[in-house]
Write a structure and sequence with these properties.
The complex is a heterodimer. Chain A is of the alpha/beta class. Chain A has 18 helices and six strands. Chain B is built from five helices and no strands. The mean pLDDT of chain B is 87. The chains are: A alpha/beta, B mainly alpha.
Chain lengths: 466, 102
Amino acid sequence: MIQNILEISYLIASVTFIVGLKMMSNPKSARKGNLIAAAGMGIAIAGTIFLYENGEGLTTREPVKMIMIFSAIFVGTVIGWLTAKKVKMTKMPELVSMFNGMGGACAALIGLMEFQHNVGNTGPQMAVVLGMIIGSVSFSGSIFAFLKLNGTMNKPVRLPSYNILNAIILVGVLAFGAYMIFSGTDNSMLLYALFAAALIYGVLFVIPIGGADMPVVISLLNSFTGLAAAFGGFLYGNKVMLTGGILVGSAGTLLTIVMCKAMNRPLWNVIFGAFGSNGAVAGEGSSISGSIKDISVSDAAVLMAYSKKVIIVPGYGLAVAQAQHVIHELENILEEKGVEVKYAIHPVAGRMPGHMNVLLAESNVDYGKLVEMEEVNPEFSSTGVVLVVGANDVVNPAAKTDPASPIYGMPILEVENSEHILVNKRSMNAGYAGIENELFYNPKTSMLFGDAKDVLTKLVTELKSM
Amino acid sequence: MEVILDFIGTNREIIYFVILSIFVGIEIIGRVPTVLHTPLMSGANAIHGVVIVGAIIVMLDVDANNLGALVLGFIAVVLGTLNVVGGFVVTDRMLEMFKKKK
């Protein structure tokens, strides 16, 4: 009877996960969807705490255990809640990576603790060992992805023939894992060694990959953690862990593929990093002729105020400078002056697909003004001024014209078709991908050097006084 | 070979379950517009926090006198809760901003 109630609570939770994810596919219902999934999670957790029974009578509910469980949940809730509430919107990718790592670590710990109970049972032991390996890789990988996004460790670290080295370690970890599963050993020392090896593999997996590719890696690690949770579900015959884990596993994989598609690079290319090694050399080789033209803030203001349509191309530089509020102000002033303003959003603008939308939504930009790449590209030819703020690679014409460029083939925003292009950049440094941009040398382009927030504030002041 | 066939035989319900869930996951997520990908990733991240259920099961099944195991279980539950609570709260914060103005 009680077990049936628990199963029903798991069933409800599984359905809320599916419904919740489905509702997240529409901006109108997305928030409710998230809350529904959260409620389902609450039901599953409460059900487990009060109703779960292991078939062999191992389950006990001594006060000491219950107190520890509740205090653990309390501690996790307080820390998680505060971090999630306080973190800046620009730090979103880092935070997702961090929380993902926590889930991975949780799965790894479960594996470490369940190993002794399943010695000799090949099926369950397989779930234990695989869950532990994947959880550990996801944990250490996420932590290093976090450090990379954080800027603590921005440059790819490549050991000599790292691809071969990584492949050998991966095969080694898997072979070691297979030995642990099939030999029926109960040696804890070996288990810890495997745990350490998996952690090291996670680090080696992430460090050769450049910071710009981290969202793809995080998305992949996200699906890894899902998989680890699913193995936990298999171990306990727990349906809610299975549904949740597999849903995330397939979601993460699909998202990863979508992100790679937006960058026009196959996944293996991101993971094994052909990028930046031979690619950058080719980029440096093709020298760009022409000169760079500066423009004063007041001239830029005049140019914008007297054009019919202005399209703003926001990039990560805007996010870093925290300029999303100022840009909204700029938009309002231009609209007052009768200028039509739109935002052109490249699928990988910012550091994650949709990241830029979140940032602009934070500063109350009307959702309808954010136009996606396919829709906005034909509009550039009828646009007076394009204002590029802190974006680089997503407007680099080399993606269309130079087959030697590492970003060749990536769909870009065709800003060079408009009458004037204003580019705000901090300096002439190359973009995140480390390649030159011939757009800056285009006769129609004028550069506004400086911090995005400073420059935009000056533009706003200038426009107000006109 | 026999081991594998045996495995499939004893676990066929779960295997069906896994395959169907994969398709459900792909179907649901395939229709999400690009603009919602960051919140979706975050939401999915919160959902795999369901691994906390496993951590709680470990805690409930462990011997109450085994202090080492209790402490490890405690840490696992804390980490799982961080994943769940942090994930859902952050997703909510992101989605709050998508409210239509006017």
